[in-house]
Fold:
Amino acid sequence: MSNPQVVVHRDGDLLAAAAAARLVTRMVDAQAARGYASVVLTGGRTGTAVLEHLNRNAARDAVDWSRVDLYWGDERFLPSGHPDRNETQARAALLDHVPVDPSRVHVMEPSDGKFGDDPEAAAEAYAALLASVARPEDHGDVPAFDVCMLGVGEEGHVASVFPDSPAVHEKERSVVAVRNCPKPPPTRVSLTLASVRSAQEVWLMTTGEAKAAAVAMALSGAGEVRLPAAGATGRRRTLWLLDSAAASAVPALFKPPLA
Structure:
C-alpha cells in the first residue's frame, strides 16, 4: 500500500487537462516497458472531462491505442447506449475517436445485455473476465492495472462502493452488483476496494468545496467502511488530484503548492 500524494490545481478544467497529459505519459511508459498499458476508467464530470482533454491533447497519438486494455471501475446497470452509462460517455469523449481494439475494451454488461436484468450475473461475468486476464505476477484474480482512475463522492464513495454498504464490506469477490444505491440509478456493477487496490497507481480525482470534507477525512486516516475513498490505494502510488476548492480542508502535511 502506498502513501497518498496530493496535487492541487487551480480549477477543475486545469485538473482534467493535467490528468489527461499525465495519463498519456503513463500509458506510453507502460507500453515502452512491456508492450501494452491497462487503465480503469471512471465516469462522472471529472472522469469524462479527462477523456475529452485527452482526445484534444496533441500527444494523444503517442499512445498505441491498439495496445491499451480498458476497464471500468463501475457501471450504471442501464440499457446499452443509455446516456448515463459510463461506457456511453467514454465512447463519446474519447474511444470513438481513437483506434482502440474493440476486443480490449472491456465493458460491464448492460441491463439489456446477454444476462438480461441480472446485475449479479453481470458482476460475476466481469469478475471472470478479470481473472482470465490476470497474470501469475499479478498475485491474484485481478490484473495489476497501470492506472485506476476514480471519482470521489461527497460522502466519500468511490466507484459504486458507498459508506457502510455491502460492497464496502466485501472481502472475497472482485466485482459486485450494487443495489439500492443512495444516488440514482439504484442498480450498478462495481469493482470492490480489493480490486481497486490491485492497481499499480490509483488516481482519485475530484473538484468542488462539497468534496472538501471527504477528502480531508480520507487523508486524515478515516476507516474505509465509513469513507470508502480512504481504502482506495495503489500498490505503488496513490495520487489525489484536486482543484483548490476540494483541497480547501486538506491537512497541512499533504498540502502542496498550487500546480
The mean pLDDT is 96. Residues 148 and 239 are 10 Å apart (CA to CA). The chain has seven helices and nine strands.
